[in-house]
Amino acid sequence: MVNTELVIDVRETEIAIALIENKQLVELNKEKKQSAVCGWRHLSR
C-alpha cells in the first residue's frame, strides 16, 4: 500500500509543493510569489 501526502507551504516570497510517498520525497515544486497571484492548481492521478 502506498501512503501519499501532498504538502503545500505558502510563504511571503514563494510557494512550495511537495509530493511524498511512503515518507520519501517524490517531487518538489517551488514558485516565486508575485504581488498579485490568483489561480488554481489541479493535481490528479
What would you note in describing this structure?
The protein is built from no helices and three strands. It is an all-beta fold and 45 residues long. The protein has one domain. It has a three-stranded antiparallel β-sheet with strand order 1-2-3, with no helix packed on it. β1 (4-10) and β2 form a beta hairpin. The two termini are 16 Å apart.
Describe the structure using short key phrases.
45 residues, mainly beta, 3 strands, 0% helix, 53% strand, elongated
Write the layout of secondary structure elements.
Layout: E1 4-10, E2 14-21, E3 24-32
Antiparallel strand pairs: 1-2, 2-3
Q: Sum up the overall morphology in one term.
A: elongated
Strand content: over 45%
Number of domains: 1
Calculate Rg over CA atoms: 12 Å
Q: Give the low-confidence spans.
A: none
Assign a percent range to the helix content: under 10%
Summarize, please:
The protein is mostly beta strands.
